[in-house]
Design goal:
41% helix, binds S-adenosylmethionine, Rossmann fold
Length: 622
């Protein structure tokens, strides 16, 4: 959810007043938080409407009932919204629960993005513009704001949420210019059927994002599949349908600007959307915004703005893939999109012919840092330097992974257990020492693995009997092992690689020589030289390698990334076996510095930067 980090003091004051109202209503009315947040927001809108001498035209029956019990006067200085209509969004996000907003895909667009998208649409002076998921109207607001002065314009907005539609109405009335005609409808955009007689010149949209199980897939997907004669994956997200439905109501040549999650660039269901766009539209630009690197505080990590027109591209038409590093001004970004104007400090542009784009490929590769992309040819697959394996799958961790106290209790002899890292959070840094493992043992953490490779002792037999009593022998893996309590043989790996990760994949130097379960993959370097191992680790944990991973990684929902052993084998890496002594030593000691920085809880950015610079100078010499 978007939470604006650079709020003005006056806005903060109004939000605090609104929250106070929320708390008062909570005490008086005993409502659940979902309704309470929406109700508080509604009362504030009502107050604003009163000031403007207007009505709120869209009704929510539940809220209407509640209104009868509400106080007549509220203490929120809503006049502020007259000079800053965006305050309505801030209030919404601070009052309405995240769970409600998530349920209806309500991620509101930040103003700087809406301004850019609206300005692009307005370059073509459209007469009829639609926002099919209008929310509180930030796009239409910006369409009015950035339109050429003289041109009359017809604005259309759909949404299923009456409260947001009321907010939209008020906001647009505050901004309304002469000649603007506004049509807002409480309507499911995917069910509009033959709503329009005339088609739209432009569509601007931040569609809801809902997974397939969160909407009535059958009812909504079928008509679109029939119309376009396509078959959509069961995993299709609702925003894909918004693209397709929008094209139905757009006239030929219409301009469309969409902002969505970037997933469709690399997921399976994304292939269908890419195929659709390539077939039915002229793709002008795709702009990748990495919110985290831009240090904007949002719930999304990355988003993509797709700018396109309804029609068939001319031969040789080029799509501009723009990756933003630092948010440019609207005129700067417009000239990047329209003329390909370079500005390497803020963004990079890669142009690709539309007829060369393949829907089955991951288009993320067109956003990779160009400097890094040029390194690719100098790197080799990790499989040339190391063997990769999964961590040990026990079949039943609760039974096979033990604490020291369990071992003492059952008097299991040391020859039947080995030290193990059983969970990712047992090993958080870049190296894992014997002392780290001893600490786990002292804390009576689960850090021993039952590792039976020979005839069990009488004590162990007791524990095995206990296992059979609790059904440990009946698990899927244990049923297929003989004897069921034996463990797959796996040597400790010198390098451990996290399997799931949010921010970046982490590679750990296993100095303790312990075994690991499936939270980590095992990386067995084909060499023993410690400096080489450390140099490899410096590369694997670098920002440069992170960029390289973006082409290879398989994305999981919620920003969680999973790397399979196969993906790891293919990961392009620096060939540390070919480095001269000086390069090797400098990378190895930089890795040691990274380990210490982490252990001391210090800022990792300077050392990461140092490693990147080292790597760049080494790779350039290759
Ligand atoms: C991601 S928000 C965007 C809101 C606003 N346009 C903005 O950019 O800030 C998506 C909006 O779509 C609305 N919505 C969800 N399902 C819809 C549907 N089937 N038809 C129309 N609107 C829908 C939600 O209520 C929400 O206001």
């Amino acid at each position: 959810m978007l939470v604006f980090s650079h709020m003005q003091e006056e806005d903060v004051k109004v939000i605090e007043q609104a929250k106070k109202l929320y708390r008062c209503l909570k005490e008086e009315l005993h409502l659940n938080e979902e309704i309470l947040g929406r109700f508080t927001y509604y009362l504030i809108l009502k107050e604003l409407a009163l000031k403007l001498g207007e009505e709120l035209p869209f009704e929510d029956s539940c809220i209407k009932e509640l209104h009868k019990e509400a106080p007549l006067k509220i203490d929120v200085e809503i006049n502020r919204a007259l000079s800053n209509p965006n305050l309505l969004d801030l209030l919404y996000e601070n009052l309405v629960t995240p769970s409600y907003r998530k349920k209806f895909g309500q991620f509101l667009t930040p103003n700087y993005i809406a301004e850019f998208m609206a300005s692009w649409i307005n370059l073509y002076s459209p007469s009829r513009v639609l926002d099919p998921a209008v929310g509180s109207g930030i796009f239409l607001d910006n369409i009015i704001k950035t339109a050429a002065k003289s041109s009359p314009i017809e604005l259309w907005g759909f949404d299923i949420d009456p409260i947001l539609l009321n907010a939209c109405r008020l906001r647009l009335n505050l901004r309304r210019k002469e000649g603007t005609l506004l049509h807002l409808e409480q309507q499911d955009f995917l069910k509009i059927g033959g709503f329009f007689t005339e088609k739209m010149d432009a569509i601007i949209c931040n569609p809801p994002y809902l997974n397939f199980h969160d909407f009535d897939r059958n009812k909504l997907v079928r008509p679109i599949e029939t119309f376009y004669n396509i078959k959509l994956s069961k995993l299709t997200n609702i925003y894909v349908l918004f693209f397709m439905q929008s094209l139905l109501v757009a006239r030929k040549g219409a301009k469309l600007a969409f902002i969505t999650p970037s997933e469709f660039l690399y997921t399976g269901y994304g292939k269908e959307l890419k195929e659709f766009l390539l077939k039915h539209t002229i793709l002008d630009a795709m702009i990748l915004i990495d919110f985290q690197s831009l240090v904007f505080n949002t719930a999304l990590t990355t988003a993509i703005i797709t700018l396109f027109r309804k029609g068939v591209p001319e031969a040789g038409h080029r799509v501009r893939f723009i990756r933003i590093y630092k948010w440019p001004t609207t005129p700067e970004l417009l000239s990047a999109v329209m003329d390909g104007t370079e500005n390497p400090d803020k963004y990079q542009i890669i142009e690709v012919r539309q007829d060369e784009l393949k829907p089955e490929e991951k288009w993320l590769k067109y956003f990779i840092n160009m400097e890094y992309a040029s390194f690719l040819s100098k790197l080799i697959p990790l499989s040339q330097l190391a063997r990769i394996d999964r961590g040990i799958a026990t079949g039943f961790n609760e039974y096979f992974v033990l604490r020291k106290s369990d071992i003492d209790k059952w008097k299991i002899e040391s020859e039947f257990v080995v030290p193990v890292i059983s969970k990712a959070d047992q090993c958080k840094g870049y190296d894992f020492s014997y002392e780290d493992w001893k600490l786990l043992e002292q804390n009576d953490d689960k850090c021993y693995l039952l590792y039976v490779l020979k005839e069990p002792s009488p004590n162990l037999k007791e524990y095995i009997k206990y296992g059979e009593k609790i059904g440990a022998d009946q698990r899927y893996l244990t049923r297929h092992r003989s004897p069921w309590y034996s463990m797959e043989k796996r040597e400790p790996a010198k390098i451990l690689a996290t399997v799931f990760h949010r921010e970046r994949m982490r590679f750990v130097f296993n100095k303790a020589n312990v075994r690991n379960l499936t939270a980590f993959h095992c990386v067995y370097p084909k060499f023993d030289d410690v400096n080489m191992i450390k140099a490899l680790l410096a590369y694997l944990n670098s920002d440069l390698c992170k960029q390289i991973q973006t082409i290879k990684r398989r994305e999981y929902g919620g920003g969680l990334h999973k790397f399979e052993p196969k993906d790891l084998e293919n990961l392009p890496v620096l060939d540390v076996t070919k480095l001269d002594g000086e390069s090797l030593n400098s990378l190895a000691s930089a890795f040691e510095e990274l380990c210490t920085t982490f252990r001391q809880g210090k800022d990792e950015i300077p050392i990461k930067r140092k490693i990147n610079n080292l790597l760049k100078s080494i790779i350039l010499k290759i």
